[in-house]
Specification:
about 325 residues; alpha/beta; Rossmann fold; 13 helices; 17-beta-hydroxysteroid dehydrogenase type 6; oxidoreductase; SDR_fam; NAD(P)-bd_dom_sf
Length: about 325
């Protein structure tokens, strides 16, 4: 009884002390430059502007020239330095190193690396996909993070800086239909976990963000429909017969409906976590972003696997009120 009461007191005390501890800010931010990838839209776009407006020298890496122009229209200051970067190409990353080195000014140094670039690769079940779907997801979401980190790691080590990477709740638990996406995000988690411990002697701090579902351009309804339909068009006739057109449409509709229900439009849950990880003297090792991440996905990743599987089946069954299922099972029931 005494142990239980002590524990109940220690838990809230820990969070109060952590909150106070995390209020301490890094000084001289005007000298500590950050590089942020994936700034064309969404989280990257917003955190790049937030950092620049806070007086932080901000190298905003965009995949497209349109992304660069969009940033300049919002904030055309000397603190914001947008440039083009494709995280999947070694040559582009090396050009980025040269750009950053030649554009550091007045005693500035690259102190922060924010790995935000990513793609959303939900195409349906594994039967709808091929190795190229997985390769694309892994190359952008995981190898892109590794490629950029390795190129700039020496800069970060010299000044006891920090590396921040976006994973996902899909980096903690892979639910049905998310295989290609989860593979890349699991990889990010593993890489940063290892890196955090390896770079500890250099004083480098590494943080992982684990957002839930947010309404960004990556989760556009039409884009999801196009992804699934394109994958379906490449599936062989035998697999199409196994699943049926009706089941494919159910995957599109149920996913978009779930996003409407669960996805948050408040991108500040993520961008504020980014900003804290950049500016706090003692950043967290992990940031859970969004109520679905905190109260559903992270807890469910900790339960026994059998129970986890049962919960996902129950949720899918609840969503599937019309009893839509792969055609092969429907045929077995009628025979």
């Amino acid at each position: 009884m005494l142990c239980t009461c002590t524990l109940l007191l220690l838990i809230p005390l820990y969070y109060v002390l952590r909150w106070v501890w995390e209020l301490f800010k890094v000084k001289d931010l005007e000298k500590r430059a950050v590089l942020i990838t994936g700034c064309d839209s969404g989280f990257g776009f917003k955190i790049a502007l937030q950092c620049a407006r806070a007086g932080i020298p901000t190298f905003a890496a965009c995949l497209t020239q349109q992304g660069i122009e969009k940033l300049k229209k919002e904030e055309n200051s000397s603190k914001l330095r947008p440039f083009q970067l494709d995280v999947t190409k070694d040559e582009s990353v090396q050009q980025a190193v040269k750009f950053v080195d030649s554009n550091l000014k007045n005693g500035e140094y690259l102190w922060g690396l924010v790995q935000n670039a990513g793609v959303f690769t939900i195409h349906g079940p594994d039967d709808f996909m091929n190795a190229q779907h997985y390769q694309y997801s892994f190359d952008v979401n995981c190898l892109g993070c590794i490629r950029v980190t390795q190129a700039f790691k020496k800069h970060i080590k010299k000044c006891q800086g920090r590396i921040i990477a976006t994973s996902s709740v899909s980096g903690r638990v892979a639910f049905p239909g998310t295989g290609a996406y989860a593979v890349g995000k699991y990889g990010v988690e593993a890489y940063i976990d290892a890196l955090r411990q390896e770079l500890y002697p250099w004083g480098v701090k590494c943080s992982i963000l684990e957002p839930g579902a947010f309404k960004t351009p990556l989760l556009d309804h039409q884009m999801h429909k196009n992804r699934v339909n394109k994958a379906w068009s490449q599936v062989d006739d035998e697999t199409k017969a196994e699943y049926g057109e009706k089941y494919k449409d159910f995957i599109i509709e149920s996913w978009n409906k779930a996003l409407d229900t669960m996805a948050s439009s408040n991108l500040a849950y993520v961008t504020d976590a980014y900003f804290h990880a950049i500016t706090a003297q003692y950043p967290r090792k992990r940031y859970r972003c969004g109520w679905d991440s905190i109260f559903f996905y992270i807890p469910i990743s900790l339960v026994p696997t059998e129970l986890q599987d049962w919960i996902f089946r129950a949720l899918i069954s609840k969503e599937n009120k019309g009893n839509v299922e792969p055609a092969v099972f429907a045929k077995k029931k009628t025979n």
